[in-house]
Amino acid sequence: MTIHEQVRIGRSGISRRRFVHTVSAAAFAAGTLTFRDIVSLRAEELQKQRRSMILLWLNGGPSQLEMFDPKPNHANSGETKAIQTSVSGIEIAHRWEQTAKVMDDVALIRSMTNKEGNHRRASYHLHTGYVPSGSVKHPSLAANVAYRIADPEVTIPSVVSVGNTFGAGYLGVDYEPFVVGDPGTLPTDTTPTVDSQRFNKRLGLLGQIENRYADRGAASLVKSHQQLYKKTRNLITSPELKAFDFADEPAEMLTAYGDNKFGKGCLLARRLIEAGSTFVEVTLNGWDTHQDVFTRTDELISQVDPAFAALIADLKARGLLDTTTVLLMGEFGRTPKINPRGGRDHFPRVFNAALAGGGIRGGQVIGQSSDDGSEVAERPVTVGDLFCSLCHTLQIDPASETRSPLGRPMKIVEEGEVVEELFT
Question: What sign does the CA torsion over 120, 126, 131, 136 have?
Fold first, then answer.
């Protein structure tokens, strides 16, 4: 069969993925393609599929009992009640009314478990797949994903964060997050103050100065600085810059997401994914509820619930949910027992996460905690398992390696298995 015949068949029924694998395997066997060539073809294929991820990060450790694992028949429940969802048999906490309506598209993991109970260490672990180490600054999952599948032709940032997050580590400035402080408006200082000809002339003069600096022993610093300037120039001259501006959004869409920073951040995430970004993180602080857990989570959930539900519905309506993985979680859970201050303390032993999109089968619960919420009773899921599952949705091998500055091969995550139930 000729190449042209294979292309014709591909257009009429065989996927591009199968076609690339078939042709590359045949070429490899014939000796006309090296293994490096095949890896390059695979990377190009993933870039054209436009897989992406949105992380909604609840910073401080949200209480699983006030989220998706309520215990209405136990004293540990306190003021929290359970409500039915659109999926028969699945109940969640009563403040999540909008999320309950889209449960058909959401998978809940009620058996996340870890050992890290310190905010910084746990957050680092859940963002990088590694516990902190003094010898290596690990890349975030966002950076690792962008490194492997971001389309180099897209001119807006491949990694965006609404709120501060973890960075690219040793992967370098190309994969550092672009931090947005005010979602819904154009980033500051993105409008040149001179015409394009003068702007380019200034960049040329800067390049001459930097080259002299590089010749005096600062080549690596100059390279990083030039990469940063290149990213900046691409952004401010990109037609996709308008994705940051909500001026063209219908009023009803703004209302659905919510008139607050988190809601606007979720809307921005959808717009950026649609424009070509690979990974967007939106953070909401305030979940460290050592006291007044019910009052404080009421206010926080009132922001997250409508935004999360609107994001899922919006992505689905635009045909983006199948290729966009959405993850909602924090660094750990809270103690099932309410403390004397009416709050809950740090509790990494059992917590939960909500996932949607990216091929995940919604309308299901994975794992179970004990009746009092103090132990995992069924199907424990580790951080490594979660990372392997996220890589699966993005069609990335979690064992694929990069090299640290000291030459050490580093996998995306060292151990763990795909939670197969998410996809069956």
Answer: negative
